[in-house]
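name: query_chain
kind: protein
chains: 1
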Amino acid sequence: MKRMIIQGGNRLSGEVTIGGAKNSTVALIPAAILADTPVSFDTVPDILDVHNLMIILKSMNVQSKFSHGVLEIDPTQIVEAELPSKAIKSLRASYYFMGALLGRFHRATLTFPGGDNIGPRPIDQHLKAFKAMGAEVSEEHGTVHLDATKNGLHGARVFLDMVSVGATINAVLAAVRAKGTTIIENAAREPEIIDLATFLNNMGAKVRGAGTGTIRITGVDTLQSMNTHTIIADRIETGTYLSLAAALGDGIMIHNVIPEHLESFTSKMIEMGVDLQIDSDKIFVPKTTHLKGVKIKTMPFPGFATDLQQPLTPLLSMAEGDSTIIDTIYPKRTKHVSQLQKMGMAIEAHDGTIIVKHTDHLHGANVEAGEIRAGAALMIAGMMADGTTVINNAGNILRGYDRIVWKLNRLHANVAIEDDSSVKID
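structure:
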């Protein structure tokens, strides 16, 4: 268990460079086991999820090496093996091994994945896709068994009852080495799905339509990597630093940005009164003094991302008037509310709506990061607050933010990570 210690009150300035997208990385690493050659990724974020995925790879005799943002994976000696339940349960994206193993071996067994507890996120749409492609599916005691060895994995028409990033990605992973053509309808359109398709296509896959509501995949017999895949910039990390820069910055330049992935977010910041200066691959956030409240409704991409409603909350508390947030993706994503209240923020949640009122003063407190983005909200609030803020369970923040302490301190914040075991108890 780790905790983050923040000495608040510092004004921030300087430059920060965004890392590769977490939500791409956690799909690309399982996708690597579909290759018949070694695979290399660049701009990989140094986050806990990457290290946990490497543990899972090792259990299947897949060697991996991570250094200076480059991750090399060699799946050529892969074997079927029981996957480590502790690593599986530490991150929800481990469920992408279902699709990848099904594509590679035509069968898979996984314990039910863990990750952030932000409300119901059933995997029924994933299983629906696998069944359509010929897999027999059974569940018992939190373990999912998939088996398509009898008749093989084959192409199918899959209509997702709800737009699901996870189900879309898992269906793609299973389909790329299946026989025939798979058509995924009502597919998610997130940039991370395009990134995955680009990686697969560069290895010889035939994935068309990624980024639209209909994806067509024609199965191939082999996938062979010929070059290093550079992971797209993390739009959620970008949005977090944009919010931080507007709240505390005296002028901050954010590099390695894909503005097109953030239009719903940056338009809200501009509506609030932040004079963003947006370039082709960077955004400058000047000192911001006057803000007004806004209404936010999270939606599937290209709408306002659910992962960005919490990092924006501390900035909303500085605005004149009330702001409202309705999260249509995860209505129960409110773990940050009670913790921000401890710091003096005027925020409340009722019937799926979060209301943020103007707050003049935040004070340090002992709080809990219930999940990644809740932790990001507390982190920004802690830097805004007077005094010391201690964020417990800070491992959740480290799961999603590349070299977060180093980056923040380079902007003149005062942030440190400690192991709880280092705390002396009299």
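note: The chain has 14 helices and 23 strands.
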